[in-house]
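Researcher: Please translate sequence to structure tokens.
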Amino acid sequence: MDVQTLTYLIVGLTFALYIGIAIWSRAGSTKEFYVAGGGVHPVMNGMATAADWMSAASFISLAGIVSFVGYDGSVYLMGWTGGYVLLALCMAPYLRKFGKFTVPDFIGDRYYSQAARTVAVFCAIFICFTYIAGQMRGVGVVFSRFLEVEVETGVYIGMGVVFFYAVLGGMKGITYTQVAQYCVLIFAFMVPAIFISVMMTGHILPQIGFGAELVDAAGNGTGEFLLDKLDGLSKELGFAQYTEGSKSTIDMFFITGALMFGTAGLPHVIVRFFTVPKVKDARVSAGWTLVFIAIMFTTIPALAAFSRVNMIETINGPESKGVAYETAPEWIKNWEKTGLIKWDDKNQDGKIYYANGPESEMKIDRDIIVLATPEIANLPAWVIALVAAGGLAAALSTSAGLLLVISTSVSHDLLKKNFMPDISDKKELMFARIAAAAGIVMAGYFGINPPGFVAAVVAIAFGLAASSLFPAIIMGIFSKTMNKEGAISGMVIGLLFTASYIVYFKFVNPTANVADNWLFGVSPEGIGLFGMMINFAVAFGVSRVTKAVPQDVVEMVESIRFPKGSGAAHDH
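Model: Translation complete:
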């Protein structure tokens, strides 16, 4: 069978599996819709959380960034992984003990204020829409290549599938669908990585192959190590050395911090810890999630390096002098049809040439690297189709989690807690589904008109989460003196500062997006950490000159700090 037929078959089977699970686990109450009834096994929840967290940015785009920028791409690996550890240790058990459905629910009750709840709702929705734009872009990239349809058509298909299982099943349907999606995406990621590691280094584990000696076709050592070869190729073609970074130390620090604290403030990941029966299960679930995430994240640097070497050598040929377009590898022509690879024969010699500088004739979208890797390495057609299914699983699992946060924020936190306190369970569920449907339509628009490549858009969402929700949550758990005025002021000013900085350098005046113009040399991807510091400073400053926290709230904070009980998720 050819690649396209296999892709239709494998993607079709996985979609049928997801939809079947959604029908089997249809939510019948708000508790099942919001937190899957609070009865998910910790290992299952660990897989679901890993799938929720490892989005299209992790599967499709992260290896692409590391592959293209080398050492500088490590900020994403450090920030996202470190952030998950912070979330697991400092937040998940305490929020589970509190026992509410959503992050705005926690903020509204902890800061005894409907205004705080409403601000948190808008922060959560803003973050989720920024994040989901990257996911829908990922869906479009996968479909445009492997189903040979327009990017727009691919986004519409993805919208339809997510709509079905997110709106029908709620958190219950999403949880069990995400377990299946984790299995699909991790298998799809590891199979080509293992294949290529064996082919290039003779090691079955890509993590070992990353630091190993390259082998020839007969399996004999060449005397050259993978990273040494990459450094040599990068230097020869005018790129920065692969193992040396070009970013300043302060920018590396701020981007890592923004990603780390942003991860701990992501509402769609936090809500997963309300789906397990007990606080102990939240801790165990967090540990399992870290194991499941580590499998992919320790493989990404290796896959990125393998792909980079293969890509350069297939484009430029063994002597790095270019290859005639007529005899160029098939993968280049396949991806050229999508517009994600472009060739401009500047010197009219009929050869393709890839380098860093004006002489380069190739423009390559970073987001294609993982998806194109099996083709570049001439792996079997079923591996290419499997990777397509994995990319879709990653994008769709996160999209579903984000849509659930949007729908619960609107129906539960905005309508039930503000405008319709006497709304019935059935009506609340109906509004949640309507909000999810509206969210899918908006997400589709951003997928068709994306504001950037996947991981960059997602990094911005993390910065917004770091500067708004994270400080309010962490102060809500660990500070008995933080009052509503301080929390609200901090959230609003932190979010406005970060969003304004990002919008200016990314959209209003993108030509000014160079280190000389940045505040203290901090890029838009890292400014979330600065926004977080402003949030903390404003919050503590305002809280010192306003009314003290009521005694009953102080006692509530003390009870959260010692998470010994279960605290079943509730909404009263």
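Researcher: Any highlights?
Model: Residues 3-219+236-306+379-561 form a domain with the Sodium/glucose cotransporter fold (CATH 1.20.1730.10).
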